Amino acid sequence: MDLTIKTPRDFNFRRTVLSHGWYALLPFELDKKSWTLVRVLDGGQTEPVTVKLSSTHGAIKVSTSRRLGKKAAREIERDIRHILRLDDDLREFYQTVAANPEFAWVAHQGAGRLLRSPTVFEDLVKMLCTTNCSWALTEKMISGLVNELGRQSSDGRKSFPTAAAMAQKPEKFFRDRIRSGYRSPYLKELAQRVASGSLNVESWLTSGLAPDELIKEMKSVKGVGNYAAENLMKLIGRYDGLALDSWTRAQFARLRNHGRVASDKKISRFYARFNSWRGLVLWCDMTRDWLDPENIGK
DNA sequence: GCGTCCAGGTCTACC
DNA sequence: GGTAGACCTGGACGC
Predict the structure, then answer these.
(1) Quick one: pLDDT band at residue A212, thresholds 50, 70, 90?
(2) A133 beta carbon < 7 A from strand C?
(3) Calpha distance A118→A125 (Å, rounded)
(4) What is the pTM of this model?
(5) A136 C-beta less than 7 Å away from strand C
(6) Which tens digits make up the pLDDT trace of A61-83?
(7) A209, A201 in Cβ contact below 8 A?
(8) How far is the CA of A170 from the C1' of C9 (A)?
(9) CA of residue A258 to C1' of nucleotide B2, angstroms
(10) Where are the alpha helices (DSSP H) in A6-162?
(11) Which domains does chain A have, with CATH numbers?
């Protein structure tokens, strides 16, 4: 079954998909030859659905693994709009960067929409699994969670596990099967808090809390520190924090500081002119070369 | 084959 | 409030 979702004029499918590493973590898959983003979506009520997303003129073409009713189709569209940030209003952001010639490319190319998961819970778990380890280990942990605890779609692919599914497993499972090491009790505790309703991470999307207060709440989750919290803030649409980590520091040194290590204060000063958009400008700046020039704009 | 280092950090105890 | 040291894993590297 095919669906079509119209996209905003400033939307760039490839820039959005490659905005950061999430496209490579299950249940996302990217076929770069056909430029198709595959994703398993689980509404919880019925069998999960695999969707294949590709870009057509001014729209996203969606191919689903099975036929859907009207309600299910609406839910799938809602999830895809959320994942691709189709309803994010970036006009102010693009006006801001366009005023700086060096950063005008961000607006021209439609960069700045950061791919995210259908739920904050999934983004949070993935963020925890990026801390203090190689990317290869992050992929291994996330693949383990999906393959061990995800629900099967009609095409055999698996969805991301629910908090309830994770909460049922003992800490030993996370250590022995997921290989998440010291993060194991953190993952277990997070899943239990979310599954029991004592922590509502989805409410962060619409929270009226000031940035500092929201960061504080995020850091109440064990294993979430500055890096993870500030990155999560970006995924819910707040870009005050720079989310500096070893990679962004090294990249800033290479691209902006003649290969020399720069202090966090210096990095902060460099992007301060972008005010509440500074975190997003930094990320676009650091990842400008992630898309081959010949593929830009398609 | 073995030891060491380190990667897209965070927590805790201690000062 | 600032800062060592510990924490898991797995790949790269040197010997």
Answers:
(1) confident
(2) yes
(3) 13
(4) 0.95
(5) yes
(6) 999 999 999 999 999 999 999 99
(7) no
(8) 19
(9) 38
(10) 13-17, 70-83, 91-98, 104-109, 120-128, 135-149
(11) 2-89 (3.30.310.20), 90-298 (1.10.340.30)
